[in-house]
Amino acid sequence: MIGLVHDVLDKQIKDRDGENAGRVDGIVLELRDDGPPIVRYVEVGPITLLSRFSMRLAQWYARYDRKLGNGRGQPIRIPWTRLTRDGPTIDMDLDVEATPINALEDWLRVTVVERMRLP
Amino acid sequence: MKKALEVSLGIVTSVGGFLEIGSIATAAQAGAAFGYQLAWAVLLGTVCIAFLLEMSGRFAACSGHTIPDAMRERFGINFFAVPLLVMLGVSLIVLAAEVAGVGAALTLATGVPLPVWAIPAALLVWLLLWKATFGVIENGVSLLGLVTVVFAVAAVKAHPDHSRFAAGLIPTLPRHDRAHYWFVAVSVLGASISPYLYYFYSSGAVEEKWDKSYVGVNRAIAALGMGFGGGLSLAVLVLGAVLLHPRGIDLEHYQQLPLLVTPLLGRAGFWLVVASLGIACLGATLEIALALAYLVAQGFGWSWGEDLRPDQDARFSLTFTAIVALAALPVLFGAQPLKLTQLAMVLTAASLPVGVLPFLILMNDESYLGEHTNGPIGNAVVLIVSMLALVLAVVSVPLQLVGS
């Protein structure tokens, strides 16, 4: 038995190396005619997060996010089957770098931080 | 032995980290305007921050969570956004006041106008945050902050009236300037109960990998460290009461701060006050910038840690970079440090319940703390003082504005 809002939503996600990989910002359910809804994905990232306040804000952010590369500008989805609960955190059986979760982090590292190298 | 060393270092850190421009300025203003009569506000604020600090350390040691992390997890983003935005807004103004404090010390030392120091002061802070580890920031700057003990030495040499000082520790109604009295009392409370201090402390405990075996160490650090730190604030108030109050001098400019010590310690006293102001404000600036970056990074689940290199936590590092840059702007555009400080302290006092109430709910949640949840005394002290600060701020600020 698992309470999706209580036990999953807003929890910290850790990747297979224990690195922080964002928080569960949304949960995607599939509605079925022949049974109860099932959880398909969790969503991570600013677009989903902002949509919990305002869809217009989320769409505005998505327009800018699209410029970060192919496949950007939409919510990042992690299949439910790759996730397990570990106390208050959610373990993801993936390397965070193999997902788009850290795209903004990587973009900032390459375009800003690595150009600010100090002796 | 290792724990005893950690207790000593923690206490030294707390003492060095307690005093900053808010505590120095508001305690001195209280002493100058009302003699010993507002000593109770310093005492009340110190007791409250000691409880809050102990709670935040216990929370981190028992749950492995920082406060922002648990707030987001427990209450969800729609609720967490409120303390996040309030804390960011208010603490940015406090941070600007601290940058002004660093600049004011440099101005006192060199005579070069304050706005000129805005960018160099911000750059120094940023460079330390960018390059130094958590240990260097927490222990190094706070150890240097022990120079603020000069206020205690001067207070002893000032031969205060002990019975009147003791009487000031019990709240009394003002005999004159009621609105100003409550306004200064609120400023003192806001300066003592700085939310950034306990947010920073809980993140530090997680960075240093505290576990349940640190519950006792944490209690000693919070009680003794905040006790000594509050003692230094009281020393500043005593100096204001002995040296400024009888001469009718109100503290209106930071250039007057050395007057708290120079009549007793001469030229050496001047330089010690300048060093105290500069180092204490530098320490506070580092802690506030880090506390805010922790708040954002933990709230959104990013990689974070002062011990990581900036290329390992780019969002965290660029968050504190942006925060320090924003905080330098008011000084650059000529904001008056004492006015900025007073505004920051009153806003801090008024916003206390926004952060404290959800924190108290977490502190009573067995799923995080197990058998180490809060007792009724801790709950009552923190709840009553933070609500009192809010009520006093709401009542006294309009009265002060009307009065002035």
Mean pLDDT of chain A: 91
How would you sum up the global shape of chain A? globular
* H and E order of chain B: HHHHHHHHHHHHHHHHH
Low-confidence stretches of chain B: none
Q: What radius of gyration of chain A results from the CA coordinates?
A: 16 Å
Structure description:
The complex is a heterodimer of chains A (119) and B (404). With 119 residues, chain A is α+β, with helices and mostly antiparallel strands. Chain A has 4 helices and 7 strands. In chain A, the strands form 2 sheets. A 4-stranded mixed β-sheet of chain A has the order 2-1-7-6, with no helix packed on it. A 3-stranded antiparallel β-sheet of chain A has the order 3-4-5. In chain A, strand 3 and strand 4 form a beta hairpin. The model of chain A has no long low-confidence stretch (mean pLDDT 91). By secondary structure, chain B is mainly α. In chain B, helix 3 crosses helix 17, helix 5 runs antiparallel to helix 15 and helix 8 crosses helix 12. At the A-B interface, strand 2 and helix 4 of A face helix 4, helix 5, helix 6 and helix 14 of B.
Task: Write a brief caption for the model.
The complex is a heterodimer of chains A (119) and B (404). By secondary structure, chain A is an alpha+beta fold.
Record keyword descriptors for this entry.
heterodimer, A: four-stranded mixed beta sheet, 30% strand, globular, B: mainly alpha
How do the helices and strands line up, and which of them pair or pack?
The complex is a heterodimer of chains A (119) and B (404).
Chain A: H1 4-8, E1 12-14, E2 20-23, E3 26-32, E4 35-44, H2 46-51, H3 55-65, E5 76-79, E6 83-86, E7 89-92, H4 103-111
Parallel strand pairs in A: 1-7
Antiparallel strand pairs in A: 1-2, 3-4, 4-5, 6-7
Chain B: H1 2-18, H2 21-34, H3 39-63, H4 67-75, H5 77-110, H6 114-131, H7 134-144, H8 150-157, H9 162-168, H10 178-192, H11 195-207, H12 215-244, H13 262-300, H14 314-332, H15 337-363, H16 366-369, H17 376-403
